[in-house]
């Protein structure tokens, strides 16, 4: 996962990685798309991926055409979890979410086991 990326979309056909750095990303063939796909059967602004107020990622259909599939099921809007497959026309992307930061903050005391006595 690239530094500072919130999530990553990986093209399952050619392995191209599309890092997501902002809470909302447009997916499509338009040059203004955050995730630009090069397939004529994908709409200019086919879908939007965003992080909601609960820090969950959501994919939303933005067209009236072929639509968006999540794990092979049609979806107008769907919460995403790590490893989900997003299909737009013939393009399939794997969603990878940045794992939560599990490192203790600087200066934090290590947690002692219940059986450990404080000396």
In words, what does this structure look like?
- With 119 residues, this protein is mainly beta.
- The protein has a single domain (7-96), classed as Tumour Suppressor Smad4.
- Helices cover 0% and strands 39% of the residues.
- The strands form two sheets. The protein has a six-stranded antiparallel β-sheet with strand order 2-1-11-10-7-8, with no helix packed on it. It has a five-stranded mixed β-sheet with strand order 4-3-5-6-9, with no helix packed on it.
- Strand 1 (7-11) and strand 2 form a beta hairpin.
- The N and C termini lie far apart (42 Å).
- Residues 110-119 have low confidence and may be disordered.
Task: Name a few traits of the molecule.
5-stranded mixed β-sheet; 39% strand; mainly beta; 119 residues; 6-stranded antiparallel β-sheet
Short description:
This protein is an all-beta fold.
Residue share in helices?
Answer: under 10%
Number of distinct helices? 0
Q: At the third CATH level, what is the topology name? A: Tumour Suppressor Smad4
What series of H and E elements makes up the topology?
A: EEEEEEEEEEE
User: What number of domains?
Assistant: 1
- Unreliable stretches covering 5 or more consecutive residues: 110-119
Oligomer: single chain
CATH class: Mainly Beta
Record the strand order, biggest sheet.
Answer: 2-1-11-10-7-8
Average pLDDT over all residues:
81
Indicate the CATH architecture: Sandwich
Structural class of the helix and strand makeup? mainly beta
């Amino acid at each position: 996962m690239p530094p500072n990326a919130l999530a990553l979309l990986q093209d399952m056909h050619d392995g191209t990685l599309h890092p997501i750095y902002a809470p909302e990303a447009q997916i499509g063939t338009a040059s203004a798309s955050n995730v630009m796909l090069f397939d004529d059967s994908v709409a200019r602004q086919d879908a939007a991926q965003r992080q909601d107020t609960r820090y969950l990622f959501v994919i939303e259909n933005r067209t009236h055409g072929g639509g968006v599939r999540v794990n092979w099921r049609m979806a107008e809007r769907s919460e995403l979890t790590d490893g989900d497959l997003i299909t737009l026309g013939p393009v399939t992307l794997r969603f990878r979410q940045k794992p939560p930061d599990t490192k203790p903050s600087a200066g934090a005391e290590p947690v002692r086991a219940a059986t450990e006595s404080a000396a």
